[in-house]
Amino acid sequence: MGHRKGEKCVVKFIGVVFIISGGLLAGHYFAEKSLIRIHILEELEQALQFMYGEIEYAASDITGIFGSLAARSRYCKEFWLYMHDRLLENEGGALYSIWEDGLDKSVWSKYLLYEDRLFMGETGKNIGNLDRQSQLHTLEIFKKRLANIILAARSEYKARAKVCHAAGAAAGIFLSILLV
Amino acid sequence: MDKDNTMQVMQILPVVIRKRFSEVFKDLSDVQEIRLRAGRPVIILYGKSEYFLGINGGLTHNIKKAYYVSAAELREAMDYISSYSRYAFEEELRQGYITIQGGHRIGVAGKIIWENGRVKNMGNISFMNIRVAHQIPGCGEKLMQYIRHGDSIYNTLVISPPRCGKTTLLRDMIRILSNGDGCNRGFTVGVVDERSELGACYRGCPQNDLGCRSDVLDGCPKAEGMMMLVRSMSPEIIAVDEIGSNQDANAVDYVMNCGIRVIATVHGLDMSEIRNKPVLGSLVKEQAFKRYILLEAGKIGKVGKVFDERGSVIYNQEYRLENDYMLAKNAG
Predict the structure, then answer these.
(1) Does the pTM of the predicted model rise above 0.90?
(2) Fold classification of B3-131 (topology level)
């Protein structure tokens, strides 16, 4: 009987370890989600800078720019490729409506907050239909706004990561107490 | 006209008009122009006649049965033409036309934004003239025997009234000289294409065939372009279309003094008109040009005469530029 009690204790201990690990992993997942959001925003910042350079120095058209961005990007590759392919089709629709479609279909957009999504939507409405000077000026404004968003996201990240990890561990401990 | 060329024009039309076009035309080889005007019927210059695009499909001469273009459709077409990037075509819009892939030229008109005595931009584009590009390869073959001179060529001036085919002829002469043939070597030809009519460059690449040894300066003023080519591309021949100003003529003189041959075109009805031009006239008097090709007024593609440097006629048999093309096409 003592032997069986010992076995039950071992099983419970393993169970507790799993539950707490699960809690920690869940906390880590949510923390990583914030980090991926920052990486995506940083990639978008580079994309805006690339766009600025292509328009200022080469007067490249937006379809070509999207194609080049697809080759350079990691997180947003499918979005730029979608935009490039859709615009080449010439099947109607304003650029910003195709942009919105692209955002809706993108897997990475789920990592963005509501404000980030609004920002992306605004960016799409202000590309392509302006003269060169206004286009560059508009891109400059959007780059600055994005830089501020990234700064705020980075400063929040550390605290948020700690909270996520702690909450994950706490939830794991709480569950293990409940269940065990 | 090949399928790709047809697709290039079709792709820039608004979706609704494109569908109607594809029902009527399998290819656009006989279409010269497509005119789109906001609130007006679609007009097509097909063969030698003008037609309206029918509201129920097909072509019609009856304006009451014509399909009318909306302003939104013109904006849609402009999006396709500019690849959704009007900022990238500011210079072209200032000139009033955009060249697309395939060498087709879209003339546009609308509200001009004027600043500091020059056209700054064009907005509210409500009129479009799509000129479908047609090359006539081989139209210059018969004239080559008059301009070749040993291992080189004579400095040649093509004189023509407007819309008589001088640009088409010059284009083909550039191609023949650049490629060479079994008997004659190819030359390095520098082309100054100020109005993108010769090469019809799209993203820097000539859409018309100018030969394998041609270098093209697209959108560059003629005088500066000739100097740049002399300095940088070591041309054996420089080709330039529509020289008119004193600067152009001075640049031609400079190029000739560098030992480079020149083929140029100029507006004019006859030799006496050219002799009366101030700087170009002095080049003629100095016999700088050794060959003059005169195209006949009122007849597209008809070579009237070929003169030598003294003004003596060395070719007076009438033929049309297109004859050579049709002969070449049928033989091939």
Answers:
(1) no
(2) Beta-Lactamase (3.30.450)
